[in-house]
Amino acid sequence: MAKTILIVDDSASVRQVVSIALKGAGYDVIAGVDGKDALAKLNGQRIHLIISDVNMPNMDGITFVAEARKLPAYKFTPIIMLTTESQEEKKRQAQAAGARAWVTKPFQPEQMLSAVAKLIAP
């Protein structure tokens, strides 16, 4: 059975590029348009990995990660931050909230898949 990945990004084009790369590698994909939307999708279903943007309307990625970590079913779900941010302070905040990896946009799909594979096998 395919592993399920939740993508959270307010950019439809980024969601599409990431989704195509992940589906091509054999993963199932669920998408959220911002932290609030993604949190609503964390309804107990099995999600093997989360990929989240940092800067989003309604609820930013770091707040989303912290909120997701409060949910028992997702306490240990690996989370990759995918963002244009490269500031060390943002990285520290994301790690403190519970993110496991950081991929900077623009990214190559192979780079993303490599980060995903390190955290979960297809």
Report on the structure:
It contains five helices and five strands. It is of the alpha/beta class. It has one domain: 3-Layer(aba) Sandwich (Rossmann fold). It has a five-stranded parallel beta sheet, sandwiched between helices. The longest helix has 13 residues, at 12-24. It is globular and about 30 Å long. The protein starts with a strand and ends with a helix. The model has no long low-confidence stretch (mean pLDDT 94).
Condensed summary:
This protein has 122 residues and is of the alpha/beta class. The protein has five helices and five strands, in the order E-H-E-H-E-H-E-H-E-H.
Task: Give the helices and strands, then pairings.
Layout lengths: L3 E5 L3 H13 L3 E5 L2 H7 L7 E4 L8 H9 L9 E5 L4 H10 L3 E4 L4 H11 L3
Helix pairs in contact: 1-5, 2-3, 3-4
The level of helicity is 40-55%
Query: If helices are DSSP runs of H or I spanning 4 or more residues, what is the number of helices?
Result: 5
Relevant CATH superfamily: Response regulator
Mean pLDDT: 94
Termini separation comes to 9 Å
Short key terms for the protein model shown above:
Rossmann fold; 5 strands; five-stranded parallel beta sheet; 122 residues; 5 helices; 19% strand; alpha/beta
